[in-house]
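Minutes, methods subgroup
Present: GH (chair), OT, SY

1. OT presented the first of two proteins processed in the latest run. Sequence and structure tokens recorded below as shown on screen.
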Amino acid sequence: MSGKRRRDEEESESFEQRLVNLVVRIGDKNVQDLPLHLETLASTLSPDIKGDSRDLIIDSIFDAVRALQPKSAVYGTLVGLINVQHSAVAEEAVSKLQSELQEALDDHAPLSIRGLCRFAAELMNARVLTCASVASLLESLLNVEAEEGVLPCRAEWFATLVLDCLILCGSQLSTREGERFTALLAKLQAFADGRATRPMPSLLRPFGADTHKDEVMEHFDALWAVVSECAEDGSWSFPCLLTPWRVFTEQFIGAESYELAPVTIPRHTTGCTYPSLRRLRLFQELPSLAGRDRRHSGESDAEMADDDEAFPAPLPLGERVLIEEYTWMLVNAFADSHKDGAKALAWQQEAFGLESSVSYVEVVFSMLMLLPTPRNKLVYYSCLLLDFSKLFTPVPHLLARAVNKLFSELPRLDVELRSRFVDWLSLHVSHFGFNLTPFGSAWAAHLSPPGTPPAERTAYDAFVTTLLQKCVALSYHERVQRELPEVLAEHMPPKPAGATAWAALSVSDTEPGAIGTKSAALLSRLRAKAEREDVLSWLDRDIDRAQLPVLVVHTLLDAGAKSVSHLEKLLDKFDWLVTHASADAAARVQTLAAVGSYWNARPAMVWLTLRKLLQYKLTDATAIVGWLTVSDAGRPLLETWGAWDAIGEQLSLAASSQRSATKAAEAEAERHAAMHADEHSGAERRA
């Protein structure tokens, strides 16, 4: 009996998953035959949508609408076809749209708000929603500008939302609600004119006040350029704009349309964010900059010709902006899986038949270099660019060109973005054998001559030095030096070399009680694979407790100094030894001090070692911050490379741990409350 029940459950789960897959994957393989596939899907879902699977189908459509926003037209048309056969189901979807959109507005979930508004525009195209009710929705979104004391970024975000919807439904809205459409355009024109008098704050520009208007394109400006051009020409058609609803216009006209109930837009509250795509134009050389970039690039005439030949042809304005929008949507949607995100973008390029590599690289760089902070972690964008390098032939060339472009503008580039740029580049080249050869000739003209005093070094020199330091931290000195172009050799950091407490040998250091002799004895026991209990017993018996942290830490660091992987292996194998040496708070501080004294001449290695100790849970953030801020030996390290990055990491980890503990406590409280309620209910029944 239990076996049969299990088979029934598996079959039910399989059936539900098949339904979800049918909805989610529609249009993934063939855009040309999309209307036929949609019609087939609507017929396939018809028997199930009348039964117990109605909620599952509707929920799947709404999940796809939020996550797969470039396919908004697909799901709007699907609901339109369902409306022809099952009007009650479409009416339920309209009601759900209103409640979901209101909830997203109340929670200020910007990506969901955008996906649901796009869905409303497409439902209007499919005549599921009345044109008047969608016009009212767009008007209410645009009216945010009239709020008293409204933040410019808030007003602009809602205006951008309206522009996004107009690109989808402008053709229908201009025909069926001409006066209201014209009024919307007039308000948007007035908003655009007002923006011209309020330039973007310099702190948000990649090159500060020196940012040229053609180097960055704001989200509103890009969409307004498309909408105004379409409204002027009267053409709302693009190769990458899906419009499957046009095929079914006659069927939709005969079906019932529904009013979208009004939504209330809450006022701004603390915590609300307004994400936008601030486009960094890396491949649009300005007339005033082009000659300078070429002169100092170090490229020969032949190399320049090859470069131009390999560079993909630019897309027209409309296609370029829309592809960038789709890319931004999908990159945000697949933040939990870079591989799925890259696959979705590969499908997009194949489906529309447009060479999109330039847009893909520019959009990901724009998101990575967004000020004040990117939406996702740097490693996500790095993984995406690596995936692009494998999937799209032009991308490696484009990345090299983007790197050289940003490098040539380093003195103008925001300091925070320089740090982000070097972090990404060190991670990227680590996947290609730390090969910096593609950049050597282009960077050479910017670097100071050999022997230049440190005080006269430029931002270019500092960037290359920091890059090589980070590369060494990701691997080891010999590995990075092996592929290093000669022109960059002078910036290579010295090979990391620690200083043990017994480095300066004297006659007394060879005596049985000297610390150098004790270190040799400890290392001999570890290499001989002595039992843990025997080693700890010997340490407790023969080693002064105050001397123990230095002895253990310096011995392990010296044995693992060849590379990071050597150190990791030792910490993984002998974590018990470090734990024994740092048994209390005072000993933990001594352990950190021993790390600092060993790598005294190489501060970068101090931070790397501390990260590894944290990774293996051999120290804690409190001990690190305390040592840095209180200890005479620790405080000077606050002035070195990586110090505040390390402290920031500890604060982030502490905040993350606090959030996890809070969630666990809340879950436990809810569990106890439920148990208490059950007990109370049982007692009442017994009474």
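2. SY then presented the second protein from the same run.
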Amino acid sequence: PGYGDSTVAEFAFGLLLDVTRKISRSYRAVQEAHVDTDHYLGFDLRGRTIGIVGTGAIGRYAARIAKGFQMNVLAYDPYPNEAFAREIGFEYVTLDEMFEQADIFSLHCPLTKENYHLFDEDAFAKMKKGVVIVNTARGELIDTEALFKAISAGKVWGAGLDVLENEGALLHDDLALHSMREQSSDSLLRSWINLRMLQLKNVVMTPHVAFNSIDAVHRILKTANENIEAYLQGNPRNSVMK
């Protein structure tokens, strides 16, 4: 059972608002007592087109939030939920159509062999200039090098990333040296690019915490307790062994 559908979707929009309204940047400017409002010019979500990649429970909740902001919603999923699309009023499109039309992309799909580096150099090339990328799903869905190049070229206006390729090396000092010894040259390159992106003013990074709310943790514990009780009573629930 799901425990963080709304939790992760809300966090994705927190990242989106931070990027589009430059909230963290302006907060740091206040801390430094060096404020120039011209540096924090953002844009509204209302009327913008968001492309939601993956319409499982989290993606569907993200679509509902987007509708609350009066955004136009496009979605891509290999297994479209047409009933839900009709319910809240959005359209399923191909990935290429989404790349061409969306102003904002929010990723909410699992990582599979088929969608590894779903957002690669070719994908970014098809997008409008000035898009925003939000990823609270899995870091490997995005080609790190391609994203960095797209940001540097201005194709991507900003990014909100709760997940990264090789994120362990960036988030934990005690793992960094060990992981660098074990990494291939490609992995080392991605780790280096992560560090470079961390320094960019139009990138907001968080340490894989989109799931982490009091409410979600309570749901996890409640489900675990119920599973244990059901098992002890001889009636196991939520079993992954069929």
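Chair's summary of item 2: The CA atoms of residues 122 and 146 lie 9 Å apart.
Next meeting: continue with the remaining queue.
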